[in-house]
Each structure stands twice: as C-alpha cells, then as structure tokens.
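Hypothesis: this fold can be encoded by more than one sequence.
Test: take the structure tokens below, design a sequence, compare later.
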C-alpha cells in the first residue's frame, strides 16, 4: 500500500504541474489538450469502475477546455485519495468486473487497475512533454525522483 500511495501522490503532483504549465501557455496546442483531457477522463472512468459503478457511457477521448481539466484534476485527486484511504492490503486482490466503452466485460484486480492508471497517465504526460518541446516550450519535469526529492 505504501508504494501505491506514493504512486498516487506522484500522479496528483504530476497532473498539477502539467495543468499549471498548460494554463500558462497562451498558444494552445489542441493535441496537448486532448491528451491531458484523456488522462483525466480515463482516471475518472477507472475511479467509477473501482466504485463498482457503470463507466461504459463516460467519454474517454473528449477534448475539454482547461477549466474543466482543472476541475477534473481536483475531483480525481479527492476521489482517489478517499478511495486509497479506505483501501486495505487485502482489498488489493479484489476483482473488479467492468464493461468497457465497446461493451466488452473484463475482470481485473484493484492492484492491477491502480497500477495501470498510474502508468497510463505517465505515458501520456510523456507525450504531452514531447509535443510541448516540439512547440518550443520547456517540457515539464514530472520525473518520480524529482517528486520524491
């Protein structure tokens, strides 16, 4: 649980750093906003699934404006913090059954879902940084080691 807690502290920190950078850029890159929206919408979907609720109708690739992203960053942080606070080590092996956006049913453990969400966001934040650099902006340092320092 300590490792998972730390991963999510890092996830929240990294999302906040990306958000602040995107809020400060006047010249908006549509693909960057789409990727950041995707990260946040995917987090919301997985939170919904972890709660045992239907997520099949939630959008996953909808571009939302930066104000909505800011709200999602806050909501997801609160929801994930609450979920993790109430989670025990034995809960990590619990299987969650969910249906994806294509109507296919899957079962995964809480631990695997939590690991996926953390890695998924990091992957797309890397894509965001690559696009920022190609647009002439300094990439956001979201390295885990920077976070723990």
């Amino acid at each position: 649980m300590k490792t998972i807690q730390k991963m999510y502290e890092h996830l929240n920190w990294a999302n906040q750093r990306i958000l602040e950078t995107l809020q400060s850029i006047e010249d908006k890159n549509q693909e960057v906003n789409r990727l950041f929206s995707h990260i946040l919408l995917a987090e919301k979907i997985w939170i919904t699934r972890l709660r045992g609720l239907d997520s099949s109708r939630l959008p996953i690739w909808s571009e939302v404006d930066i104000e909505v992203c800011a709200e999602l960053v806050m909501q997801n942080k609160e929801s994930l913090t609450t979920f993790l606070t109430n989670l025990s080590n034995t809960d990590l092996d619990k299987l969650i059954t969910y249906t994806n956006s294509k109507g296919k049913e899957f079962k995964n453990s809480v631990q695997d879902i939590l690991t996926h969400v953390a890695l998924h966001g990091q992957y797309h934040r890397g894509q965001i940084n690559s696009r920022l650099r190609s647009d002439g902006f300094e990439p956001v340092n979201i390295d885990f080691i920077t976070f723990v320092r």
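Residues 2-148 form a domain with the Four Helix Bundle (Hemerythrin (Met), subunit A) fold (CATH 1.20.120.450). The two ends are 20 Å apart (CA to CA).
Hypothesis status: open.
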